[in-house]
Design a protein that fits this description.
With 377 residues, the chain is of the alpha+beta class. 47% of the residues are buried. A hairpin with a 4-residue loop joins strand 10 and strand 11. Strands 3-2-1-4-5 form a five-stranded mixed beta sheet, with helices on both faces. About 6% of the residues have low confidence. Helices cover 35% and strands 22% of the residues.
């Protein structure tokens, strides 16, 4: 008897500013996933938050935001037996899915919200749980976990949007007392470098703060690594696993722009495209240290399944080794076939299609392990 195919729901789109990035990732996964092993169900979320399935989900993949005007399917069609919300509301009922691959980037998808829904529905899913997703999404909370784990990071402060708007001069004094220019100003809860600015002098700070405040109530301000005039190397490691995670080789991004912002990641091409170096040119000791730090950061945030861990490396100075600091953990990194996470694993000997297989296995394993936990006396 032929082995039953796993029914995999690939969930994409979403309400975040990274909606289009999610569609790109989903297209690559749907193209590469082994249809002999899996029965694939496409599940889309429009930019307005409507859940779509079947032809409407496929239209979302093909036409972007315009597809959201199609027939809405009440939080995944109950007629098809795939109501995730229904299963969440009725413990013990089935979604009809064996595992969900939430290819959602940013707010309302990578931040623990969808993960919480899937936990309530008691369905296996790829990636970190509620805590890991939420902690890694919030750069302020993430940095607190890094500090608790004794991991190195650049000096930073967090300012609330309400604090900035109530008294910009006081907030500026707080920032300048703690940090030296240049600084990077970031929304605490967003990815793909959306809303991030490099600020070289005080006159640029207000515009950067206002931009970040439009994307989140918490604004993280980080001191530039290496100081004025220094351009740190941007290094990345892909981590894979649950309780015993493994690190890929270290890769390096040479940004086409001053830093690796949204445009440099997704919009520039040809001679203007950012350059990826795999593996990064590092000493064996440096590579070993960075890979160990990546695993430690993954564990510090209670991640699972996958994450890309980003580092900054300041130029070496006379008599001192190059400074290496953690930048952030991304629990659902870009997943196109040319995104860094899959490329890092391909360079480590794990091709794209096999990486998809492994992630699905890890999602199922984590759900099975959860079944060993008692939730009542």
């Amino acid at each position: 008897m032929a082995k039953k195919k796993l029914r995999v729901g690939v969930l994409f789109g979403g309400r975040s500013g990274e909606h289009e990035v999610s569609l790109r990732s989903a297209r690559s996964i749907l193209k590469a996933i082994d249809r002999k092993k899996y029965e694939v169900v496409e599940l889309g979320i429009s930019p307005e938050g409507r859940w779509l399935q079947g032809g409407e989900a496929q239209a979302l993949l093909g036409a972007g935001e315009a597809a959201g005007r199609g027939g809405e399917l009440s939080l995944v069609s109950a007629a098809a037996g795939l109501s995730i919300v229904g299963a969440a509301a009725q413990p013990g009922s089935s979604t009809g899915l064996d595992v969900v691959f939430p290819v959602l980037h940013g707010t309302f998808g990578e931040d623990g919200t969808v993960q919480g829904l899937l936990e309530l529905a008691d369905v296996a899913y790829v990636g970190s749980g509620v805590l890991g997703s939420a902690a890694a999404m919030d750069k302020d909370a993430m940095k607190r976990m890094f500090v608790a784990a004794g991991l190195p990071l650049t000096p930073h402060v967090t300012v609330l949007r309400s604090e900035w708007r109530a008294d910009p001069k006081k907030a500026t004094r707080v920032i300048e007392k703690a940090l030296d220019y240049p600084v990077f100003v970031k929304p605490a809860n967003l990815g793909s470098s959306v809303g991030i600015s490099k600020v070289k002098v005080r006159g640029e700070l207000a515009a950067a703060m206002d931009l970040a405040a439009g994307f989140d109530r918490k604004i993280v301000i980080e001191q530039g690594v290496g100081g004025p005039g220094a351009k740190p190397r941007e290094l990345e490691v892909a981590v894979l696993g649950n309780d015993a995670p493994e690190a890929s080789v270290v890769g390096e991004i040479v940004p086409a722009k001053e830093f690796y912002d949204y445009e440099a990641k997704y919009e520039l091409s040809g001679p203007d495209e950012s350059v990826c170096i795999l593996p990064a040119k590092l000493s064996p000791a440096e590579a070993k240290k960075i890979r160990a730090m990546a695993v430690a950061a993954f564990k510090a945030c209670d991640c699972a399944g996958l994450a890309r861990v980003d580092f900054l490396m300041a130029p070496a100075r006379k008599g001192k080794a190059a400074e290496i600091v953690l930048n952030e953990v991304n629990t659902m990194p870009g997943f196109t076939s040319i995104s860094m996470y899959p490329k890092l694993w391909a360079a480590s000997g794990l091709p794209y299609a096999q990486l998809i297989d492994r992630l699905i296995e890890l999602g199922v394993e984590r759900h099975q392990e959860k079944m060993e936990t008692s939730f009542s006396r």
